[in-house]
Write a structure and sequence with these properties.
Shape: globular
Low-confidence stretches: 1-8, 24-31
Mean pLDDT: 80
Distance between the termini: 10 Å
Strand content: over 45%
Number of helices: 0
Length: 188
């Protein structure tokens, strides 16, 4: 947390969304559509009190599941080793954000399962512009990880390139953007 006379806030927040298509090639598969689509905002305006920390949605189309994170906290902001620190648009000193919280998950598109209250943890990596815009100019730049657990602590949804190491997947389409506000000071 960062404190000043005017505010107490986390040092970063996230907006954006995207999709993941073929898990092997990372290319758009028009006949099948996206396997996953996701997005929302986390810690809007670096204010954990706004909308209980934001709102994050994830549709797992193949598994016919809809996750919605509705009480979210930022766990940490930082930089991925080996790539340039921060981002140029918007200008920020960070290129990843990790967040967690609670929400709900339910079946969709014929899946009648009601998972009820769930907990989750996630990571988004803004690896600079232009984000991930299909196979033409920026595919597979930004990255994303999500794990959702039900009330018995069983994993009911997991999106990871390497599940053992929690390695985020490279997204096929979309843009994840990490922001800081005038109230935020980089964490040390």
């Amino acid at each position: 947390l960062v404190s000043s006379a005017a505010c107490t806030r986390q040092a970063c927040w996230l907006t954006g969304g995207g999709a993941k298509f073929s898990p092997v090639l990372g290319i758009l598969v028009a006949e099948r559509g996206p396997q996953h689509s996701f997005g929302g905002n986390v810690n809007p305006g670096c204010n954990p009190d706004s909308g209980e920390g934001g709102n994050w949605n994830h549709l797992a189309h193949g598994e016919k599941k809809h996750f919605q994170g509705t009480a979210i906290q930022v766990d940490r902001c930082g930089n991925v080793p080996g790539i340039p620190e921060g981002s140029e648009s918007p200008v920020t000193p960070y290129n990843f954000i990790e967040f967690s919280g609670t929400g709900t998950m339910k079946g969709i598109a014929g899946n009648k399962t009601e998972y009820g209250a769930v907990s989750f943890r996630a990571r988004a990596e803004d690896r600079n512009e232009p984000g991930s815009s299909g196979a033409k100019d920026g595919a597979l730049i930004d990255r994303y990880f999500l794990e959702v657990r039900d009330g018995s602590n069983t994993v009911v949804l997991r999106i990871a390139a390497d599940p053992v190491l929690d390695t985020p997947v490279s997204i096929t389409d979309g843009n994840l953007q990490i922001h800081i506000s005038s109230c935020a000071v980089p964490q040390q």
